[in-house]
Amino acid sequence: MEFTGVYMLKRSYYIINLITMYRIAAAPVLVVLIITYQVVLFKWLLAVSFLTDAVDGYLARKYKVTSRFGSRLDSIGDDLTIAAAIIGLFVIKPGFISSQIILVSVLLILFVLQNIFAYARYRRQTSFHTYVAKAAAVLQGFFMLSIFFLPHPFMILFYAAAGVTIIDLVEEIILISLLPKWQADVKGVYWVLRKKKRKH
Question: 59-75, pLDDT tens digit by residue?
């Protein structure tokens, strides 16, 4: 029985990581599809990528097979999927980008700064997966799918996604300054500060 349990855990671990790796592999395909203006294939494959993002995280928590490697893979997959979606926006919806250029620029600047700080401190990308980051990912996914599947952008959803994403990026920059060593699956600044207070 013990052997069977270990086997099932290992099997779940590999399956979940394969789902995440699919998202990483799909990103360059998405870019090629949108550059060649195959919009229908692009938006459906993008939908599958966002769906696998929800599935692999849920399965990892359900079967208790979270790991540092899995967290890093998930972060890479998330960023590549969003990057492909943003490229899609520039190609298909240039008017929307130009109309929201200030907010889009703020998001891009914060994203670049967050990654610069992360690589300067940890020599790698962060994988905090905070509560705010999870909320931002859900809102980003729904907005990206809505703008490609609906005739007009759902602006309330866009502003909600942008606002929560800004909070997420600012929080991650603060977390980088608070945590001297790389950590995965950090709930947020409040929990880090509370833990530090308990230690003192």
Answer: 666 666 666 777 788 88
